[in-house]
Amino acid sequence: MIIFLILLFIVGAAIGSFLNVVIYRLPRHESIVAPGSRCPACDMPVSWYDNIPLLSFAWLRGRCRRCGQPISFWYPVVELLTAVLFVLAGWKFGSGAELLPPLLLIAALIAIFFIDLEHYIIPNAIVLPVAAVGLGLAIAVHPHRWAELLAAGAISGVFFLVLALIKPGGMGMGDVKLALALGFFLGKAVIVAMFAAFLLGALTGVALIAVRGKKMSSRLPFGPFLAVGAILALFYGPFLLDKYLGLIGS
Ligand SMILES: [Zn+2]
After folding, report:
1. Averages of pLDDT over each 10 residues, the chain, 250 residues
2. Protein residues near ligand 1, an ion, with CB under 5 A
3. How far is CA 64 from CA 47, 57, 59, 247, in A?
């Protein structure tokens, strides 16, 4: 088991390195396969030994080998975050097929979190394939839950569609598609993801107003809150849902 978790950490760091490329290039409409990585300051191609997840950043001390410009601190953060969440998923879901949907979901949510935070978009190129593959994969792994997964996706998608239609400028269509995908992955635990997302969004809004001392003019993207809520629901959703339903029932 320990060896499996160490393997997951290494795979997670490598996937995180790929997610960095997706996060940087996808919103800029650049190819994610070619050309290879380059220093954004001096355009020097990054050689393979300077492109090893986490380690290269450490031994280059966060600077380009040629021009010495700082490399964004977010690259190793994304790699470490992916690696840690992959290990936690392996710890929780084991080494069987049940681990595949959580790993796919985690990778997609990390990309969506950072892209939506910076660019205010949730790219179709991520959310649509993830929704389709996620539904197929989730039903293949949990055949007896197909009705629940389909219904959870449909209901959460429609819920966000209604929100987007009654308050334009609030939710976007990207949030609607993400909510659909989350229902497919999480089933009824998607309620926990929504609840956590709205709570986090409200708290962050209040905190920002408190810090800036006046009403914000800029709006916050909702995708990052949905992503954090979904991670919480992935690990604790069924547990929290049972607790809550238990409270209602007693
Ligand atoms: Zn450079």
Report:
1. 95 96 93 84 87 91 90 93 98 93 96 95 94 92 92 95 86 94 94 95 88 68 96 92 75
2. 39, 41-42, 64, 66-67
3. 11, 9, 11, 55
